[in-house]
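It is worth pausing here to work through a concrete case rather than discussing structure prediction in the abstract. The textbook approach is simple: state the sequence, then state the predicted structure, then interpret. We follow exactly that order.
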Amino acid sequence: MRGPIPDRPSNISVLRSSTLLNSLSGDDLEELAETSHMAYAERGETIWMHGGHVDFFGLVGEGFVKMVKSFDSGQEVTTEIFGPGQIFGLLSTVDGTGCPLAARAVCNTWYLKAPKTQIKSIYDDQMIFREQLMRRTIGRFRQTSDMMAKLAIGRVDERIALILLMLSESYGHEEGKSVTISIPLIRQDIAEMAGTTVESTIRTMSRWQKSGAVISQNGHITICDHAKFEETLR
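Step two, the predicted structure:
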């Protein structure tokens, strides 16, 4: 099923939703909005391939985009997921290299294709913007390093629990003790992020659903007791 198509947002509203780009002047934002293009990707559609060269970076408007690392063995691992207001592919814009990871739509998604040449000019001219990008990059690197370290030593169920908890912190909607992850996830998505097989993920999730630890409805996962679920990692 393709699912519903979200409403198309405006270029300027998507740019203003980014905490990084919001530091730019009104004139810079308006100019960027005029030269950018809103694009649509269906669930599972590849936005760019690993190692590819594109003339834009992306900014999520509605939906979610995941960054995927492919290995010679054929295995794929999801390293990050970006939601509304978040930028993907900006570092390759700054250093002029190709795309180190593939970008793929998690669900039906609107994203803004912003020209690299324009943002590179802003990066070169504005020190404040460069400093903010550096702080953002360091923060992401620390989060990713911490996650990869935990994924490397944990059991399968611990790794899956870690992924669900991390997603719930960034994209969770709290209601009492429960937290619902707003990203529509299939078992393959979770398996890729946890570095395990789809079969192991299905078995683990089924066990948790039978015990009442999680609920999976319409592609959305709810952690029924967030504090208790965290204990699986202690």
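Step three, interpretation. Residues 155-233 form a domain with the Arc Repressor Mutant, subunit A fold (CATH 1.10.10.10). The chain has a mean pLDDT of 86.
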